[in-house]
Fold this protein.
Amino acid sequence: MNRYFFYNFMLVSLMNLMLFVPHILVKNRYSGGVSALIAAPVIGAILMYMFTSAMARYPGLGYPEILKKYCPRWLVSLTSVYFAIMWWFSSTIVVVAYAVLINRFFNPDANTTVILIMMVLAAAYAASRSTLTIAFIIEIGIIVNAPIILFIMFKMVRSPQLNFDSIRVIANYVTVMPTVITLAAATLIFTGYIHLALFNRLFPPNFRFKHLYVYPILGFIILLITFFVPIGFHGTEGVDRYIYLWAVTSDSLIMQYGFIERVIFLFLIVFLNLTLVYTMSGWHLGMEYIKSCFKACKPEIDSPKAPKANYIILAVFATATVLYLIFTNEKINYLITSYWLVLRMFTEIVGVLWVFILSRRRLKPE
C-alpha cells in the first residue's frame, strides 16, 4: 500500500509545473525564491511526518470520520465543505490552464471552452468511480507518464543549451529570506501526502508508512529542476517573460528520435494525461468531502455502482469550472492562483496540526 501513497505524492509533484508554480518562483528569483527551495523540503517533511503519524492511528478512516469522533457535526460539515471547495479549485485551475495551453500551442483555432468541456466531462465521469478505482487509475497514470516526464527533465539537465552561468547568478540570492508567496508555491510540491485524508480509508489496520525520508529528497530534486532549468535555458532576465514557463522551455528542446522532434508535443500529451488524472483525483476528494456532510451517505471504498449523488455533485463541479473559464482570463487566473496557494499552505498547516493533536489525545487513558 505504500506505493499508493507514493503515487499521490508524485502526481502533485509533477503537476506543480502546470500550477504557475515555476512562474511564481522565477518571478521572485531575486526576492526569496531560492531560499524558499531550501525551506520547502523542511516544512513539507515536518507536515508529512506529522500527518502520516496521525492518520496511521486511524486505519480505514478518512479525515471527516476522524473529526466526527471529537468535534460537533456542524463544525465537521463546515470544514468538509471548505476542503471540498479547495480541492475543486485546485483541479479547476489546472484543467483551465491546460485548456488554454492546448489552444495556445496545439490548435489556436480551437474553441477553448469546447476543449474544456470535453476535458471536464472525462474527468467528472472518472471521478464518480469508487475510491479504490481512483487509486488504481492514479497508479496507471503515474506508471505510464512519470517516466516520460522524468526523461524529459533528464534531457533538459543534460542539454548543451543549459547555461550554468545563469543558474549560478540566481543561486547567489540564496541568502535572501523567502516571502509568503514563494514558500506557498515551493511547498505545493510536497502536498501529495494530504490525499491521505481520504485515501486512508483504503489502508488496513497495523499499516506502517515506510521510507518517508525519500519524499523530501525526491521533492527537493524535482523542485530544483523545476526552478533552475528554465533559468538555464532562457537566462536570468528572459525567463520572466513567460507564464506557461515549462511549456515554452520544453519547446526549446529537440530530440532526434524519429517521429519525436519537438519535445513540446510529447510534453503536452503526457501532461494532458496527468491533468485529467489530477482533476479526477481532486474532484473525487471534493465529492467525498461533500458527501460526508450527509448522514445518509456512508463512506464506501469499492461500491459496485456509483450513487446518483456522485453525478449531481460532479455536475456542479464541472459547470462551475466552465463558468470560471468564461468569467476569467489568464491574468486573473494567475492572480487568483497566487492567493489560493497562500490560502492552501495555511489551510494545510492548520489541518495537519488539528488531526495531529486529535491523534495525541487518543493515546491518553480514558
Summary: The radius of gyration is 20 Å. The first strand starts at residue 254 and ends at 257. Confidence is low (pLDDT under 50) at residues 362-366. The first helix runs from residue 2 to 15.
